[in-house]
Amino acid sequence: FGIIKGSYWQRDDKSGKLIVGQDGYYIPSTDTRIIGDPNADYRTALINTVNYKGFEFRMQWDYAKGGMIYASSVNTLLGRGLAKATEKDREIAIVLPGVKQDGTENDFQTSMDRAYFNTYLGAAEQFLYDATVVRLRELSLSYVVSKERLAKTPFGGLQLTLSGQNLFHFAPNFPEGSNYDPESSSAGVGKTRGFEFMTGPQTRRMGATIKLTF
Per-residue pLDDT tens for 117-168? Predict the structure, then answer.
């Protein structure tokens, strides 16, 4: 409970390098084991409020360090050549780093496109990413109209507010251009924490409110 378990790439016992099969691609395991921990090392937040002459400015930044997530969306984009990180000559011949099954350095050639497809849609281990993220959780600007200005009106108070949530996030450990949000989850935050299966990203929300009192 509270771990990520799945298939992994086979590695050479002596060098620890990935093992490449006769087809030139990494060999996935036939069994499963613990491959990641979805729980963050720590989480912290910075909440700041500034008031000046009826204006109130408030912002909240969140930071989560560590924790792994099985990001199916990211690897689906990579495996099918739809991410910015795959903008390369896909017909070029490459040799995947690793060793053959006899322990010698791999020299099997394959194409870039097939290497991406067979690697990023392979063992479950390949789907794991460090979910470290910094986020602008909330930003708001409010203005309270002074009672002097409302003296000749039927209102006792008037407050105007512009606000936004989830306005910005940066997850440095995901492929360039993926713009992936590590808070995405396919089944909430219960026992399936850390698993994402082609889930849509969180929305960016903005709004305005008017609060009147009599």
Answer: 888 888 999 999 999 999 999 999 999 988 888 778 888 888 999 999 999 9
- Residue 37's beta-bridge partner residues? none
Neighbour count for residue 182 (Cβ, 10 Å): 23
Q: What's the pTM value of the predicted model, to 2 decimals?
A: 0.82
What is the three-state SS of 53-94? CCEEEEEEEEEEECCEEEEHHHHHHHHCCCCHHHCCCCCCEE
Cβ-based burial of 11 (10 A; exposed 0-12, middle 13-18, buried ≥19): middle
Distance CA 42, CA 10 (A): 31
Number of DSSP helices (H) and strands (E) in the chain, helices first: 2, 14
Q: Which element (helix H / strand E) includes 119? A: helix 112-120
pLDDT 10s digits, 78-128: 888 888 878 877 778 889 999 999 999 999 998 888 888 888 888 999 999
**Strands 195-196, 68-71: parallel, antiparallel or unpaired by DSSP?**
parallel
User: Which of 42-73 are b and which e, b meaning 16 or more Cβ less than 10 Å from the residue's Cβ?
Assistant: eeeeeeeeeeeeeeeebbbbbebeebbbbbbb
